[in-house]
Amino acid sequence: MAQRFRRGFRQLACAALVALLAACGSAPVGPGFYRVERGDTVSKIARGNRQSVSNIVRWNNLSNPDAIEVGQVLRVAPPAGSAAGAERTAPRATAAAPRESAPDSSGPAPAPVSSISLIWPTAGQVVRNFDGRNSKGIDIVNAPGTPIVAAAPGTVVYAGNGLRGYGNLLIIKHGGDYLTAYAHNQALFVKEGESVAQGQKIAAMGDSDNDRVMLHFELRYQGRSIDPARDLPPR
Questions:
Q1: If you write DSSP's letter for every residue of 126-158 in order, what string do you get?
Q2: Most C-beta atoms within 10 A of its C-beta, which of 121, 178, 180, 189?
Q3: Owning domain of residue 146
Q4: 178 near 82, Cβ under 8 Å?
Q5: pLDDT greater than 80 at residue 198
């Protein structure tokens, strides 16, 4: 009975993680719009797009800003011909205020600096970079069977092919609410619940559910996709 309960709990946890990836990887939205992801708030979306909360609320007719839902599409840029709205979003400079770097408007805000140490998950050429909207990770191409390794130590929380568009997929959970995902593999060498070391071979590169041989690699913090290149060493 206890074993059956643990198996059921593990399946539910993995299903939730897969659903999270599916929600975050849904169809792209047009310029000036943003699809709400798990953990988002109106203030966080406003900061990430260099807008004020009042503008986001006004442009989307939000009666309750605390009730946005995952998958909801919000306008994050002024409607055409609304120059005044754009002007109100510009911050006023003050002589005494310290300068802060502007958030990256191309996608979700980055995770805290130096909170995870990654190594490259495979060798090859990066053919697609992260942009936070149309691309939730990076794509690395090489020959079939090229080794895929764990980018950081952690625990395998999903190993399978149940998420359409990702092929043979591995998801590894790391400390500090981080996940890494490794998609389109030819073969998987680790199982759910298994602990892996950084640099351990976990898969072989392939083209499962894809039109070319490559690794699609994602890094997520508290459910939100972030640019893995920021935490990968230069090469």
A1: EEE---SSS-SSEEEE--TT-EEE-SS-EEEEE
A2: 121
A3: 125-230
A4: no
A5: yes
